Each structure stands twice: as C-alpha cells, then as structure tokens.
Amino acid sequence: MKVLILAAGLGKRMKSKYPKVIHKILGKPMINWVIDTARVFGKVGVVLGYKAEEVKKFLPDDIEIYIQEEQLGTGHAVLCAKEFIDENENLLILYGDVPFISQVTLKKLEQEHLKMNNEVTILTAILENPAGYGRIVKEGNKIRIVEDKDATSEIKEIKEINTGIYIFNGKFIKKNLDNLNNKNAQGEYYLTDVVSFAEKVSTVITEDIFEVTGINDKVQLAKLEKEMRKRINEKLMLEGVRIIDPEVVYIEPNVKIGKDTIIYPFTFIEGETEIGEDCEIGPMTRIKDSKIGNNVKINRSEIEKTIIEDNVSVGPFSRLREGTHLKNKVKIGNFVETKKTLVGENTKAQHLTYLGDATIGKDVNIGAGTITCNYDGKKKHPTTIEDGAFIGSNNSLVAPVKIGKNAITGAGSVITNDVPDDSLALGRARQINKEGWVKNKREEK
Ligand code: UD1
Ligand code: CA
After folding, report:
1. Which one of 25, 117, 163, 335 has the largest count of C-beta atoms within 10 Å of its C-beta?
2. Quick one: fold of 2-212?
3. Per-residue pLDDT for 10 more than 90?
C-alpha cells in the first residue's frame, strides 16, 4: 500500500512563523512522527503547501513531495499528488498534524479493507461532542460524509465522526478524484465526497481518540505531548524501569533504558540515548544522544554525545560534552566539564576541572581545579596523561603536553613541557618567607 500524508495547511491557530508540521513533539517534528509510522506500510508521499521549502528540510530523502500551491481542500490536495497514486495499490491517507496514529490501528484498518475488498475503508470514532467533524451518514450499503458546516441539525446529532484517515482502492480514488466539485459551504474540494461514490465501503471505529486527534494550536500541542510522554514512561515502567514520578520525567521516543534503572524527577533523556541496567539517573539531569552502561550514577548533570561505561559516577553539577568517553569505574565530580576526552578506568576528576581534547589513562588522579589549556586562540591542542599519574590541585596543563606514567605534578603548577615517567614536575615560583616583615611594618608607623 502507498501512504499519502496531507500537510499543506497553514496552521493559522499555531500563531507561528513556522509551518505547523515542523513543530517538535518530544524532540521530533510533528510530520516525522507520521512518516515514521507511515513508512512501515509502504512508499510515502507528502503534499506540502505553506512554506514547503522549510518543511522539506525535515523530510527523509526517500519521500515523494507534491506541492499544493493553494489550499483548496483535502480532495484538491490528493489531486495534486495524483501521479503518486498507483491503480494497483491501495492508498492510505494520513495527516501531517495528526501525529500519534499508531501502526496497530492502521493495521486494523488495512485488515478490514482487505477482508471486505473495499473501495474505501474509513477510520471513524464515536464522540460525545462531535462538533466540527465530518459526520458518517450510513444509507444502506453506502456511506456519505457530511462536513459540520454543511450538516443539517439532524445530521449534527450523529456521533460517529470521520477521523480523516482512510484507505482507498487506488483505481477507485484515481477515477473519482476528477468528479469532485467545490459546491459546499466552504467552497472546497472535499476528499470526503469521494466516499459517496463507493459501492463497497465500511468503517473501523477507533476507541483511542488520542491517536486521531489533530493539533491546531499550542495548547493542544502541549496536551498531546503530555499524553505521549505518559505513554512512553508507562511503557518503560512496564518493561522494568523505575520512574519515581513519571509526571516530571521527559523521555523521548527513541530512548532505551534497561531494567531496574531508577529515574529520579526532573530528568530529561533525549535523542538516541541508551541506558543500561541498575543505573541511578537524576534528579535534575539532562542526557542527550549518549550511551550509558550498567550501574552508572548520574546526578544533576548535563550529558551530550558521550559514552559512559559501567560503574561510573557523575556529578552533581558535571557537564560532559560531545566526544567524552568514560571507562569503567571513572568518577567525575562536581563542576567538572569534559569535551572530546577519553578517561581511563578507575580515574578520578572530582572537583572544578576542565578536560578538553585530552587522553587520560587509568588510575589517574586529577586534582581539584585542573584545567587543560587546549586552545591557543587559534587551534585546539591535545593533552595526554598516562596511567597512574597524579595531577596536583590547581594545575594548568598547557597543551600540547604529555604527563608520563606515574608522574606527579605539584599543586599550583603551570605545566608547559612534557613530564617524563615517574618524575615530579613543579611549575611554579618557589615560596619565599620574609621573617618579621609584618611586625617591622607595624612598628615603622
Ligand atoms: C477533514 C475532513 C473531516 C474530518 C476532519 C478530521 C474533509 C473535507 N473533511 O476536515 O470530515 O472530520 O478532517 O480532522 O476532508 N489539507 C491540505 N490541503 C488542503 C486542505 C487541508 O493539505 O487544501 C490538510 C491539512 O494540512 C490538514 C488536513 O488536510 O493536515 C485536514 O485539513 P483540515 O482543514 O484540518 O480538515 P477539515 O477539512 O476541516
Ligand atoms: Ca478545512
């Protein structure tokens, strides 16, 4: 089956300078939620209109794009993609602003369509308050969809509504698109009118209204996103993840988390992040696009594009930036920033430190206040610290520089030259004591 996503509409009520369908929901543009669901069923086409160029930037390469210059109605939108329709294949219609339609529901729709050998199968819902939606009018074997604005008071009583999602027989829709007119209350070419031409038509009623709800403004956007977040968190909890308070934990759809890991409140886990088992994450932590092993503790920290192996502890108040790799049993403490840095097994950097473009061996101790001076104003330079080295407190390691195996640097040193293995380096002025100096000054007065 082919899938056509209609997304030409303006989205006026979003009150935005950006097209509606590129607004992100849990990190993913609205239209990409639909595309990710759609592509399971077959080739995907999208009808764009308003600011099409901006929407295109978010679409995967294998999507066929059709342009509807003027938004003359849903029927007209499909007509703009007429060459996409294959007479020998069914056509599923979805909407760019109905992001949470599920594969399970669409599978049911497809099953009904195939079983009944239909020309069209409509996904419908029963609503207590159906105002605004097209109503499903069943007359014998035939079905008519009447738009709210065209409905008589009698038809307005009907509670079965058109979700706007259908499967059409390719040949049927291709033939009947040309029969549409715009003689209705809105002066639009209604896709719904094609339904009335069908001899073989039925509906599938969905119970889950959330899945078929469209997003029109930013209030709905927040509400639906909240519901999606709840569902993501519930799925993880049912898989064995402990989330202390799921109302205040924000986990994006592609995140994977292992059993018995605990997620504390006010934690954001984003992008393509994977977290192992028995970890403690949060509170107040943000992790993005990172891979984290088992039994890792991360408290009040920011982590991005980082690899963390097992038994590591991070935070509070650490910032691990892109290209950080922490090996087994590393300890990164408060106010430590890392970037493009490999930290070897069992190494500790516990306080007030910046490690950038550094390669650090195992069993190293990085003293409080150590800074790798990796930037000379033009270029970045590497720092290497070998196994067992001990960097004294408040050191500046001026890169490029290498500290050898088991070497020690004195507290307060500015290290500008390589330090050989097993050596002590002191890079600071020697202390002078002037005895009695203060007393002499006092007595002078
Ligand atoms: C449509 C259905 C209605 C159904 C409702 C469900 C028709 C005539 N009516 O209503 O029966 O209950 O959806 O939400 O189809 N779009 C275009 N080009 C256009 C017009 C619309 O691409 O010219 C796209 C919009 O971007 C949107 C979708 O189609 O994603 C639906 O359009 P919208 O105006 O919200 O739906 P209605 O026509 O009101
Ligand atoms: Ca409309």
Report:
1. 163
2. Spore Coat Polysaccharide Biosynthesis Protein SpsA; Chain A (3.90.550)
3. no
Q: Tell me, yes or no, if the two domains 2-212 and 218-425 fold the same way.
A: no
Residue (of 197, 201, 50) closest to 112 by Cα position? 201
User: What would the DSSP string read from start to end of 357-394?
Assistant: SEEE-SS-EE-TT-EEE-B-SS-B--EEE-TT-EEPTT
Q: What is the position in ligand 1's atom list of the atom closest to the CA of 20?
A: 26
What is the pLDDT, as a whole number, of residue 209? 96
The arithmetic mean of pLDDT across residues 127-140, rounded, is 96
Domain ranges of the chain: 2-212, 218-425
Query: Greatest CA span in the chain, whole angstroms?
Result: 115
pLDDT average, residue stretch 416-429? 97
Residues with CB under 6 A from ligand 1: 6-9, 47, 68, 71-74, 76-77, 95-97, 133-134, 145, 147, 161-164, 190-192, 214
| Mutate which of 47, 74, 190, 212 for ligand 1 pocket (most atoms within 8 A of beta carbon) | 74
Q: Which fold has domain 218-425?
A: UDP N-Acetylglucosamine Acyltransferase; domain 1 (2.160.10)
